[in-house]
Design a protein that fits this description.
The complex is a heterodimer of chains A (203) and B (265).
Chain A lengths: L1 H25 L2 H38 L5 H19 L3 H37 L3 H16 L7 H38 L4 H4 L1
Helix pairs in contact in A: 1-2, 2-3, 5-6
Chain B lengths: L2 H27 L10 H16 L3 E6 L8 H18 L7 E4 L4 H15 L11 E3 L7 H13 L4 E7 L4 H10 L3 E6 L2 H10 L2 E2 L8 H5 L3 H41 L4
Parallel strand pairs in B: 1-2, 1-4, 2-3, 4-5, 5-6
Helix pairs in contact in B: 1-9, 3-4, 5-6, 6-7
The chains are: A mainly alpha (203), B alpha/beta (265).
C-alpha cells in the first residue's frame, strides 16, 4: 500500500512538473490553461498552510503553558497577543491594529537591526580570537578597509578607493560565483524532482 | 517569455537532464571511483548530532525564509534533505530535533520529513509533531531571529544548523550560538546571509554545498550522481567563462602584441 501511494505521488509530482515546465517554456495555448490552473492550485494550497502555521504556533505554546515548561510565561504573552490581534481584526479596529504593529513590532525590529552591526563585528573578533586562519585574517582586513573606507574623511581617501575597488571587483566576482553555484545546484535539484529521485514526495 | 530565453533555458535543462541521468548511472556502477571532497560541516555533523544525543538535548535546524511554491522551492527541498539526515541520526536519542521555519509552506514538508526520519529508524512511536515550529518572520526576519535565540535558551538546544534562506539577521542567531558555545553549521542563498554565515559560523557551507547533504550524510548512489552532475556542470560553466573571456580579451591583446612587434607603427 505504501509503495502504491509512493508511486501515485511520484506520478502526480512528475506529471505536474513536466506540464508546468512545458507550459512555461513553450508558451503554447494548449498548456497555458492547465499551467495556470496548476499554479493557482499551488497558490491556494500555500495559502491554506497559513492556517496550519497558526495552529502550530498556538499548539506548541499552549502545550508549553499547560506543562509549565521553561519559558511558559513568554508563551502566555504570545497567546494573549495572538488573541488580541484576532479580536482587533474581527472588530475591524484597524487603527489599533496598526498602532500595535508600529508601536511594538516595528520598534523592536528596529532596535534589533541596530544590534546587528555589533553582533557581526564582535562575532568576527571572537572568531579570530578562537582560530586565526588566513581566511579569517583576510576577512578582518577587508572588513576594516570597508568600514574605514566608508568614513568621509580626506585622510582615508586611499582606503575609500580600495574599498570601491574591493566592492566592484573581488566582492562582485565572488558574489556572482556563489550565485552561479546556487543556480547550478538548483537546476540539478529540479532535474532530480523531474526524474523522480527526490525523496520528499517519493517515500 | 522571450524566444531566445526559451531556447537557452530549454538547452540548459536538457543538457542538465542528460548529465544528471548519465552521472547517476555512472555513480551506481562505479561508486568507489568518485570520492567526495571533504567538507568540514558535513564531516562534523555526525559528531554534532551524537553530542546532542549524549547530552539529551535537541538539535535545531532552520530553513529561514525558504518555502515551497516560490523561488526557494528547490532550496527548501535540499534543506529538507539535510534535516532528514540530522533527524534520522537524532532519532536514536530521546529528544526530537527542532525544525524552525518562517514560511508556512515549509511546515507540512517539515512534518513529513521528521515523520519519515523516525519511520526509517523504526521508531515512529517516538515521533512528535511539536518538533516542527513556525516562527512568523515579520518585515525584516528579525522577529524570527529573536525567536530562534529564545528557543536556544528555552529548549536548551545543543547545536544549530541554519541552512536555507537567511539574511543579515543570521548574525543575531549565530552570535547567541557562539555565546553559548554551541556548534553551528550555516549557509544561505542570500548573499548577506552567506557572508554572515562565513564570518560567524563554526563550520560554514558555501553556495551549492547546501544542496549535497544527501550525498555526504546519506549513502544513496543517486545523491552521489547529483554531486557528479553538479561538478560536471560547474566544469562546463568554468570552461565556458574562460573561453568567453579569452574571446573578449583576445582582440585587444593581439593588437597590443602587433604594436609591440611592429615597433608601434
Amino acid at each position: 500500500m505504501t509503495r502504491l501511494l509512493s508511486l501515485i505521488s511520484s506520478v502526480i509530482a512528475i506529471g505536474v512538473a513536466i506540464v508546468v515546465l512545458v507550459g512555461l517554456l513553450s508558451g503554447a495555448e494548449v498548456f497555458a490553461g492547465t499551467t495556470n490552473l496548476l499554479l493557482q492550485l499551488a497558490v491556494m494550497t500555500v495559502a491554506v498552510t497559513i492556517l496550519i502555521g497558526i495552529i502550530n504556533l498556538l499548539g506548541i505554546h499552549l502545550r508549553r503553558i499547560l506543562g509549565r515548561q521553561r519559558g511558559w510565561v513568554y508563551s502566555i504573552v504570545l497567546v494573549l497577543s495572538t488573541l488580541l490581534v484576532l479580536v482587533l481584526w474581527l472588530t475591524d479596529a484597524d487603527a489599533e491594529n496598526m498602532a500595535l504593529l508600529e508601536g511594538v513590532q516595528v520598534s523592536i525590529e528596529s532596535a534589533l537591526a541596530g544590534l546587528l552591526l555589533f553582533a557581526l563585528v564582535y562575532g568576527a573578533y571572537r572568531l579570530m580570537h578562537q582560530r586565526v586562519t588566513w581566511a579569517a585574517m583576510l576577512f578582518t582586513v577587508a572588513l576594516l578597509i570597508i568600514l574605514i573606507g566608508a568614513v568621509p574623511l580626506r585622510e582615508v581617501q586611499v582606503l575609500a578607493e580600495i574599498r570601491a575597488w574591493l566592492l566592484a571587483v573581488p566582492v562582485s566576482a565572488g558574489a556572482r560565483g556563489i550565485l552561479l553555484g546556487i543556480a547550478l545546484a538548483t537546476v540539478v535539484t529540479g532535474i532530480r524532482v523531474l526524474i523522480g529521485q527526490e525523496r520528499s514526495y517519493r517515500e | 517569455m522571450d524566444s531566445s530565453i526559451q531556447v537557452i533555458t530549454t538547452v540548459i535543462i536538457v543538457f542538465a537532464l542528460a548529465v544528471t541521468v548519465i552521472a547517476t548511472q555512472v555513480a551506481r556502477r562505479r561508486r568507489e571511483s568518485f570520492p567526495l571532497r571533504p567538507l568540514p560541516a558535513y564531516d562534523a555533523m555526525p559528531q554534532i548530532v551524537g553530542a546532542a544525543i549524549e547530552a539529551d538535548r535537541p538539535m535545531m535546524v532552520s530553513f529561514g525564509n525558504a518555502g515551497l511554491g516560490g523561488n526557494s522551492t528547490l532550496l527548501t527541498l535540499a534543506s529538507a534533505e539535510l534535516f532528514y539526515q540530522v533527524a534520522q541520526r537524532a532519532a536514536a536519542g530521546t529528544v526530537s530535533p527542532i525544525l524552525a521555519v518562517s514560511d508556512t509552506s515549509a511546515i507540512p514538508l517539515g512534518y513529513g520529513t521528521l515523520r519519515r526520519a523516525y519511520q526509517s529508524r523504526g521508531r515512529i512511536e517516538r515521533y512528535k509533531g511539536s518538533g516542527v515550529r513556525w516562527f512568523p518572520s515579520g518585515n525584516r526576519s528579525l522577529a524570527f531571529a529573536s525567536a530562534l535565540t529564545a528557543t536556544m535558551s528555552s529548549d536548551q538546544v545543543s547545536g544549530n544548523v541554519l541552512v536555507g534562506s537567511h539574511g543579515m539577521e543570521m548574525a543575531l542567531i549565530l552570535d547567541a550560538s557562539m555565546r553559548r558555545r554551541l556548534a553551528s553549521v550555516a549557509a544561505s542563498d542570500q548573499l548577506e546571509g552567506q557572508a554572515v554565515a562565513w564570518a560567524l559560523s563554526e563550520r560554514p557551507l558555501i553556495g551549492e554545498e547546501m544542496f549535497v547533504a544527501g550525498a555526504y550524510l546519506g549513502d544513496s548512489a543517486t545523491q552521489l550522481g547529483s554531486v557528479i552532475a553538479l561538478d560536471t556542470l560547474r566544469g562546463v560553466l568554468i570552461v565556458g567563462i574562460v573561453i568567453a573571456t579569452a574571446l573578449l580579451v583576445s582582440d585587444p591583446v593581439v593588437d597590443a602584441i602587433n604594436r609591440i612587434i611592429g615597433g608601434g607603427r
